[in-house]
Amino acid sequence: MKVDVTRNPTEDDLSLLSHGLRSYNSQHIGHAATEEDVRFAVFARNGSGKIIGGIRAAAFWGWLHIELLWLEEDVRGAGTGRQLLSAAEAFAMKHGFFHSRLETTSFQAREFYEKHGYEVFGELRDLPQGFTSYFMKKALV
């Protein structure tokens, strides 16, 4: 056996790993383990069509996973984040996902998410160094 580390794995190699894990998981949780992730994005655009913010997300096993939410500085605090989050949650519920989870750090948007119904269920100090990462969840029903 040889173990190697690569910074440039091929899509085929990554797919092989995903397929292997889904196959294993299906032995424990059935059909849900073999379903593909529902990957999607929600964008906010200005009048000329330029992206000024957005959400990158995935959903699987009944849960929406907000991978990231970003807004340009000058639109923060104007309700754009709320609109993006609402759109992502509505999309997830329409497709049968009724819980949401995300991660944010102490210098980012914990209060924003709490204001929109998310609660901390775990934290990890010094990720990144000197800060805390918060793991948050919300029931979408």
Mean pLDDT: 93
Examine the secondary-structure arrangement and name the CATH architecture. 3-Layer(aba) Sandwich
Number of domains: 1
Count of DSSP helices?
Answer: 3
Number of strands: 6
CATH 4th-level superfamily: Gcn5-related N-acetyltransferase (GNAT)
> Helix and strand string, N-terminal first?
HEEEHEHEE
Q: Within the largest sheet, what's the order of strands?
A: 1-2-3-4-6-5
Low-confidence stretches: none
Give the N-to-C terminal Cα separation. Answer: 49 Å
Q: How much of the sequence is in beta strands?
A: 25-35%
Oligomer: single chain
| CATH domain fold name | Aminopeptidase
Radius of gyration from the alpha-carbon trace, in angstroms: 18 Å
Commentary on this structure:
With 141 residues, the chain is an alpha+beta fold. It has a single domain, classed as Gcn5-related N-acetyltransferase (GNAT) (Aminopeptidase), CATH 3.40.630.30. The chain has 3 helices and 6 strands; from the N terminus they run αβββαβαββ. The protein has helices spanning 11-29, 80-94, 110-115; strands at residues 38-45, 51-60, 63-71, 99-105, 119-125, 132-139. The protein has a 6-stranded mixed β-sheet with strand order 1-2-3-4-6-5. A hairpin with a 5-residue loop joins strand 1 (38-45) and strand 2 (51-60). The longest helix is centred in the first third of the chain and has 19 residues, at 11-29. The N and C termini lie far apart (49 Å). The model has no long low-confidence stretch (mean pLDDT 93). InterPro entries: Acyl_CoA_acyltransferase, GNAT_dom. Residues 4-141 form the N-acetyltransferase domain. This is N-acetyltransferase.
